């Protein structure tokens, strides 16, 4: 069975943390509106909740909200701890390679200037 793409309308915080999601039909371009923007995960509508107050939510919604936010924060922390050192090493390696390429280019320029130009005849 071939998997079909699913599209979502999500409710989240200003930092991008999603705490509620609804599957929706594929959004279509309308005659008077712009083409819908769909991200790689299938999110076509991102509703930002500015003043989310869990105290006004039902018990179930409050539990889902806190679980989603805590999971997002924990994932960000884990990724930062695991990737920060590796990214610093990669940045240093790229800078070193950049310096080496600059030196090679300088030497090639000197060699090309020292070579006589070919005779067009």
Poorly predicted runs:
none
Q: Mean pLDDT, nearest integer?
A: 88
Helical residues, percent? 40-55%
User: Which word captures the global form?
Assistant: elongated
Describe the model.
The structure is a single chain. The chain is an alpha+beta fold. 46% of the residues lie in helices and 16% in strands. It contains 1 helix and 3 strands; from the N terminus they run βββα. The protein has one helix spanning 59-114, and strands spanning 7-12, 18-24, 43-48. A 3-stranded mixed β-sheet has the order 2-1-3. Strand 1 and strand 2 (18-24) form a beta hairpin. The model has no long low-confidence stretch (mean pLDDT 88).
Secondary-structure map with pairings?
Elements: E1 7-12, E2 18-24, E3 43-48, H1 59-114
Parallel strand pairs: 1-3
Antiparallel strand pairs: 1-2
Q: Quick gist of this model?
A:
With 121 residues, the chain is α+β, with helices and mostly antiparallel strands. The protein has one helix at 59-114, and strands at 7-12, 18-24, 43-48.
Summary tags:
three-stranded mixed sheet; alpha+beta; elongated; 46% helix; 121 residues
């Amino acid at each position: 069975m071939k998997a079909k793409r699913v599209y979502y309308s999500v409710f989240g915080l200003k930092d991008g943390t999603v705490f509620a999601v609804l599957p929706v039909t594929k959004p279509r371009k309308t005659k008077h509106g712009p083409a819908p923007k769909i991200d790689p995960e299938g999110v076509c509508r991102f509703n930002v909740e500015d003043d989310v107050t869990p105290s006004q939510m039902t018990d179930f919604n409050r539990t889902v909200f806190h679980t989603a936010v805590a999971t997002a924060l924990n994932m960000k922390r884990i990724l930062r701890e695991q990737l920060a050192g590796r990214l610093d090493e990669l940045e240093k390696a790229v800078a070193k390679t950049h310096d080496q390429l600059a030196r090679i280019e300088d030497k090639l320029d000197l060699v090309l200037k020292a070579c006589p130009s070919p005779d067009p005849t």
